[in-house]
Amino acid sequence: MDEPALIRNAQHGDLDAFNTLVLAYQDIVYNTALRILGDEDLAADASQEAFIHAFRALNSYRGGSFRAWLLRTVTNACYDELRRKQRHPSTPLEPETEDGDEMETPRWLADPDGSPEELLDKAEIEHAIQHCLENLPTDFRAVVVLADIQGLDYSEVASALKKPVGTIKSRLARARLRLRECLHSFGELLPSAFRLEEERTL
To answer: d(Cα 183, Cα 168) in Å, to the nearest integer?
Structure first.
């Protein structure tokens, strides 16, 4: 994919070029929104809003990491959604089935590979991670999602969140510490790396 050419063409109104960019980035945008918001429908809405805003604001893109620029857009859309939720709290913390019952293993954690036992273990770990992510302050959550889940480097995260690199490093360190403390409460669900880290600190 010739990303710079696609961006230039999209900036000149080429919808096909922009749709190609959407297809390339729709998964990372949606997954970022899902991790920040913890809700499929809200994540889909935030992703759609992010791409609409990105198309309208594409001429403001001046180079650098397009991925970071796009993730800044979806992160802002998530912040807007979280503010709306605070004003009108109606969404449960846990995903629900169509019947309104709490979903033990959300659809978005399903994996077609692996044994039922492995899938259950993975689902429980993912549930624990998402639970702990949702308990982080929003600014901490965004940093962890962008850096540790989406793999952006410090400068890209700083660009996406419009914060100094030093602030990003500080927030990430504090967020990781809070996550580790939260995940320890899930005991044996943790990957061995977490348990080994805990043993070394005892």
So the answer is: 22
Tokens standing for residue 78: 């998530």
**Rounded Cα–Cα distance for residues 175 and 137 (Å):** 9
pLDDT in tens, 144-191: 999 988 889 999 999 989 899 999 999 999 999 998 888 887 765 555
Topology (CATH) of 1-95: Rna Polymerase Sigma Factor; Chain: A (1.10.1740)
At residue 55, what is the residue type? F
R_g (Cα) of the chain, nearest Å: 18
113-202: CATH class: mainly alpha
